[in-house]
Every structure is written in structure tokens, then in C-alpha cells.
């Protein structure tokens, strides 16, 4: 088995690295335009040659135009060959005509032949693919969008904030959060976003936390226990949350002991309410007696 070098072709598709070059795509253009040699163009009428260009040649470029941005020099060369075949029947012979190629590419309603300019067709197919890439809900396009694209907005320069987007292992969005706060340093916003993300993970029981590469410095601070991290605030929140959860959810006991504990808690609550009622009654009676004594003293005087 021989090891080839890029660029190479597999099933007629070029394999290369980086931006498509003229030398790579010329092979595709020569293969498509070689059909002109097999056709007896001079024996065909002008309408017949225009039909062949519309249906066969232009259709053969469709798939490649939808994927690659062709160089303008190669597109102008191919347009010149199509023009020569239209007027002379051969892509190598040139003929002087008064009708421009732009006029031939106009629709029938505007006096043209309904042909397609290859440069304009390349741009239109790329825009069509881009629209499908941004709006399609298929698994492939959704994965590529979440993996390679970011939706960025430029906020006001004097307004700072922190936020984050939660993705699962398939790069699907599971949630997000944004918290605006005045003018702060970017490091502080990034640090608060990381701490809030950890709190969210703790709340929902997520076991793995992946932060983006630009947050590596924050990750080092979080694992080193640095004083720059607001650990006190996070611990305070965790204690408050643990107390509230402890009041709402008791430890699970076996069998009827859990029900017994719930009954005991209800009984204690009822006893406390009854004690409060007695205390109020005593205070009311004491206030009445005091008022009665003061009235009697006033009458005696």
C-alpha cells in the first residue's frame, strides 16, 4: 500500500488541508469541462448548446460550489470556456460577439438565455449551505453549531457581567445563566462565573465539570485554595442551603421509624403552639389585673 501526499483524490473528491487552492480545484473543473470534447458542438444549434450548459455543465459544479469557495481566477477561466462553447461550439476557439456574458446570464424575462454565472452561483450555494447550517435541526448540524460556533454580543463598555452556558457530553445546551453587575475586572467576572457554575452543578447533582480553555487560570486558583477566591461567600451559601435542606428533609430511617419521627415533630409543633397560647393568655390576664388595680387606686384617691 502506497502512502500518498496531500492533496489527493478519494472517490473523485479532493482531500487537502487549509484553504482550497487553484491547483486542487482545477482537476474538478477540467474533468467537468472535458465533456465538451465528446460533444459535437458545431453541429448543434445555439439553443442546444445553451441547454447543455444549463443542464449538464452547471449541474456538475453544484456539489463542489456548495462546499468550497473557488478562486475568482479559476471561475473567470471556466466562464470564458462556457462562453466560447456557447458561441463557437468549442471551448478553445474564441469569437467576437456583441452580447456580453452578463446579458446571457440574465433570465428569459429580461432578454437573457437563463444561464448561470459560475462566480455568482458559487456565492449563492455557499450562502444557502450557511443558512441550512444555522437553521437546520438535524443532529449533524446541531453538533457542528454547538462545537464550533459561539453567539457573541458586544454589550455596553461600562457594564460588566458574568455568565455561562452548560453543555452535555453531546455538546447540546442544557442551560445558561447571566448575572449583570456594574464595572468590574474581567478576572473577577470570570471567577464569579466559575463559582456560580460549580454551585449549579452541586445543586443539580452533575458529577463532571468542564471549563473552557480560557478559564485555566481560574481553575488553578480554585484547586489551589487561593485567597483571591471568595471561599467565605460560597461556604456561607452552602451552610445556609444545608440548614434549609436539613429542616425540610430528615435522614431516611428504616420502616416505621421515619413515620414515628414525623409524628414526633408534629407533636412538638402542636405543644409549642399550645405553650404560646397559654403565654398569651397569662399576659392578657396580667394586663387586665394591672389595669383594674390602677382604676381602683384612682377611685380611692
Automatic annotation (TrEMBL):
GO terms for molecular function: nucleic acid binding; RNA-DNA hybrid ribonuclease activity. Residues 240-301 are annotated as: Disordered. Residues 158-226 form the RNase H type-1 domain. It comes from Dipteronia sinensis. InterPro entries: RNaseH-like_sf (IPR012337), RNaseH_domain (IPR002156). Pfam families: RVT_3. Residues 278-294 have a biased composition (Basic residues). This is RNase H type-1 domain-containing protein.
